[in-house]
Design a protein that fits this description.
Blueprint lengths: L1 H17 L1 H23 L2 H8 L3 H8 L2 H21 L8 H18 L1 H12 L9 H23 L9 H17 L1 H8 L6 H19 L9
Amino acid sequence: MKQAAATREKNQARQAKRDPEGVRRDILAVAMEEFSQNGLSGARIDEIAARTRTSKRMIYYYFGDKEGLYQRVLEEAYAKVRGGESELELEGLDPVAALVKLCRYTFDHHRRNPSFIRMVMIENIHHGRHMQLSENIRGLNRLAIEALEAVLKRGQEAGLFREGLDPLELHWQISALSFFNVSNAATFSFLFGDALFTPDGQETLSGHVADMVLRYVRVEHGRPGA
């Protein structure tokens, strides 16, 4: 058995040498599932190693330790949502269309990536301790606020959006509406039924989130800047 294990580890090492980035991606993808399902304390490195056909030694080689892997997974989760935002090309749209697209992207990204929501919830349980150690996450999220600020500014210059809007506060509002849809889906559907969580229900909610945000930011008819 020891010889078989040694042979397997040699094969894994050769594979990692040929495609180290591929091995890292596989580990991060499986680790995302493991951490989001079981939390930091409940996740098992042995399980991640088995599912990726690597070894604990290789995982620790790439990521340092369990908390290092968790932090890297958290960074990947934020990089995915922020990367998707950067691909929306909001600067090429009129301000109203840009804001609608951003709202609907956020809502749809979150509902299609419940593991992201669970990771954020888990990190809040840990009081944001690992996030505070990551310059990458802070930088990524600053870009999100700057992109929203640019949309609001264009809308204000065109006389479409009212003055006095805070992009950080608006980001909070969009995130809150989109987050609750996933974080409380199990309890909400148990209490009130699952009509809102069918494909049609989710599409309707996505549109309504965008409508609510637009009504909040737009200049009221007959009251510019109200």
